Amino acid sequence: MSNETYTFNAELRTATGTGASRRLRREDKIPAILYGADKEAASLTFEHKDIIKAQESEGFYTHILTLDIAGEKVEAILKDIQRHPFKPKITHLDFQRVDATHKLNTKVPVHFIGEEAVTKAGNTVVHQLTEIEITCLPKSLPEFVEVDVAGLVAGDSIHISDVKLPAGVSSVDLAKGADHDQSIVTIKANKAAPVEDEAAE
């Protein structure tokens, strides 16, 4: 796991509802909710410019974040981010508190390596999943899961059960049973270009 840290200043808000949220967005702020760890949900506000910059980094979605709420540091993970349908605006954030003694469920991205070897052999790498849902204690949360496809040929595939997850990390899907063992990536042969019949008139 990366040592990079993500800390954000947040303000508690008392006014809730559609009207209050609309006013906040006009002020270039983002309404948010923080829940979990058997505590009451808290309504928060973030500066839009801070979150817009942070969301460009993959770590914003996968790291344990530190929220500075009126001087109190709270660890949390991002559970949901809502965006405006056509403007480059974030409209709402959902955070879940992190308790070091309780496992958390979250999704981590899949990083594919070795794709160049597959394409050079005349095949196509088809990504079936780009993230995997996992459960683990906060200290074991991986930044991503790596899948090596370099040795695969046409017709091969890799399923969730084929991936070696870090110690202390388990797949949420596999815990549901073998029929939830989804394919992560498959290799398909490129179709040969049609050969023109020179003798055809």
Automatic annotation (TrEMBL):
Residues 9-95 form the Large ribosomal subunit protein bL25 L25 domain. SUPFAM superfamilies: Ribosomal protein L25-like. It holds the Pfam family Ribosomal_TL5_C. InterPro entries: Rbsml_bL25/Gln-tRNA_synth_N, Ribosomal_bL25/Gln-tRNA_synth, Ribosomal_bL25_b-dom, Ribosomal_bL25_C, Ribosomal_bL25_long, Ribosomal_bL25_short, Ribosomal_L25_dom, Ribosomal_uL5_bac-type. GO terms for cellular component: ribosome. Residues 103-190 form the Large ribosomal subunit protein bL25 beta domain. Keywords: Ribonucleoprotein, Ribosomal protein, RNA-binding, rRNA-binding. Belongs to the bacterial ribosomal protein bL25 family. CTC subfamily. Part of the 50S ribosomal subunit; part of the 5S rRNA/L5/L18/L25 subcomplex. Contacts the 5S rRNA. Binds to the 5S rRNA independently of L5 and L18. This is one of the proteins that binds to the 5S RNA in the ribosome where it forms part of the central protuberance. This is Large ribosomal subunit protein bL25. It comes from Pseudoalteromonas rhizosphaerae. The lineage of its organism: Bacteria, Pseudomonadati, Pseudomonadota, Gammaproteobacteria, Alteromonadales. The gene is rplY.
